[in-house]
Amino acid sequence: MRLVLLGPPGAGKGTQASIIAQRYEVSHISTGDMLREQVKKKTKLGQEAASFMNAGQLVPDKVILDMVRNRLKRKDSEKGFLFDGFPRTVPQAESLNAMLEKAGKPLDAVILLDVKDDFLVNRLTLRRNCPECGSIYHMESKPGRVPGYCDNDGAALVQREDDNEKVVRQRLQVYHEQTAPLVDFYRKTGQLSEVDASQEVARISLTVDRLLEKKAKK
Ligand code: AP5
To answer: Is residue 142 part of a domain?
Structure first.
């Protein structure tokens, strides 16, 4: 199974991706997580990327595409993969198509998690993440057993630097300008399925499951 999860910041791509990756045993490839890893390690790439990320801007296509090309060479992506947060521009999508065509492994589905901006500022400004295992929480809707601490490993939860309201609004604007055109791009290829992502996590997951089962039967 080769999938793309598309949607605005806070749509729930990371939340759904970890459910799908576990259920279908595919590699979860999040370009945002890969970049944050580089930032944490203070690599040259990480330092360059941080200035774009903290300003709510996209990291240049070339940086992202080199990173993805290398990631796809890893053996674990052979069993299938799920892109979360990639592609994000039409040139990224065109390059991905070219890469996958060359490998004879086209995408099976592109799932758009569709949700209005009104929901997203709350979802993102109240999001907290586990710095150890990456689990995603929300201070109101998913606080965890002991609020402020990860259920899996007990680590103190942290807030992403780009989850303050000013940067969130900038990220939403960038989404509408540079990433939303991908909706038409994938609609035209017939690969797009749209899911209402304003519903509860479990309901969205059920809808995605049904959709993937249908695809698998084809
Ligand atoms: P990235 O890490 O990809 O962030 P994003 O796309 O902005 O998406 P988020 O991770 O913020 O949200 P999400 O949709 O995963 O939502 P989540 O499941 O966490 O990118 C960060 C930055 O890196 C970019 O701004 C850019 O600079 C750079 N970058 C990354 N990829 C790039 C690329 N390809 N090209 C160029 N630059 C790139 O959920 C959010 C919150 O809502 C959580 O608290 C969660 O608990 C809650 N929640 C989830 N689902 C629901 C629900 N159904 N109901 C209620 N609450 C929910």
So the answer is: no
Closest C-alpha residue for ligand 1 atom 1: 32
Instruction: Quote the percentage of the chain above a pLDDT of 90.
Output: 96
pLDDT tens column, 150-198? 999 999 999 999 999 999 999 999 999 999 999 999 999 999 999 999 9
Q: At what angle do helices 13-24 and 201-217 cross, to 10 degrees?
A: 50
Residues in the chain: 218
List, in order, residues 6 or more apart from 109 with CB less than 8 Å away. Answer: 1, 3, 4, 191, 193, 211, 212, 215
0.90 exceeded by pTM: yes
Q: Count structural domains, the chain.
A: 1
Return the active site residues: 13, 88, 127, 160, 171
Q: In this structure, what CATH number is given to the domain that contains residue 31?
A: 3.40.50.300
Residue 120 CB less than 6 A away from ligand 1: no
Range of the domain at 15: 2-114+166-217
* Cβ neighbours around 22 below 10 Å, total: 10
Q: Report if residue 91 sits inside a domain.
A: yes
Distance 196 CA to ligand 1 centre (A): 16
Domain membership flag for residue 174: yes
Question: With a 6 A CB cut-off, is 90 part of the ligand 1 pocket?
Answer: no
- Separation of 82 CA from ligand 1 center, angstroms? 14
Banded pLDDT at 16 (limits 50, 70, 90): very high
pLDDT digits (tens, 9 = 90+) for 36-61: 999 999 999 999 999 999 999 999 99
